[in-house]
Design a protein that fits this description.
The chain has about 170 residues and is an alpha+beta fold. Helix content is about 25%, strand content about 35%. It has three helices and eleven strands; from the N terminus they run ββββββββββααβα. Helix 2 packs across helix 3. It is globular.
């Protein structure tokens, strides 16, 4: 059985392989998507191989435009964001190693989007998303500003999100 998760209104992933060593998904990005916030993974490396379309990625401040056959490695700790800025759908194989709790993170994001559909800004409940980001701090961390500022703001939003419930 194939499992597909919606991460954002413009991005889905379908699980291809899952073991403690790695999670491999096929990512799909719709045309003219928007970039996620800059983030990093503290304990995992990612590798993207574009199968169809074009991905735009910014890794540690360097922009990359990736077409079919292109491969991009994103080492743990590298601040990055990736999206489809082109006019057609993009597909890529996306490998995360080790798998850690990435699959659970994808499940949680999908569940949040189903319970609280994204609004005009393309985001589900910001406070509930903050609660998830706090819970999955071992998988993903925002890098949208100084950690000394982002951390406390995220913690405050997360506290409100936890009180709101799932």
């Amino acid at each position: 059985m194939t499992t597909t998760f919606s991460l954002t209104p413009h991005e889905t992933v379908t699980v291809r392989e899952h073991s403690p060593d790695a999670l491999v998904v096929e990512g799909r990005w719709s045309a003219h998507g928007s970039a996620p916030p800059p983030h990093f993974h503290p304990g995992q490396d990612e590798r993207f191989e574009v199968l169809e379309g074009e991905l735009t990625a910014v890794v540690d401040g360097t922009e990359h435009r990736l077409g079919p056959g292109a491969v991009l490695a994103v080492p743990r700790g590298a601040v990055h964001k990736m999206w489809n800025s082109g006019g057609g759908e993009t597909r890529a194989l996306w490998r995360t190693a080790p798998a850690g709790r990435t699959l659970e993170w994808f499940e949680a994001l999908d569940g949040l989007g189903r319970r609280h559909p994204p609004g005009r800004a393309g985001m589900s409940s910001p406070t509930r998303l903050a609660a998830l980001l706090s819970e999955y701090d071992d998988v993903i961390r925002l890098a949208a500003g100084p950690r000394a500022i982002v951390g406390p703001v995220l913690a405050g939003l997360a506290a409100v999100g936890r009180r709101q419930g799932p």
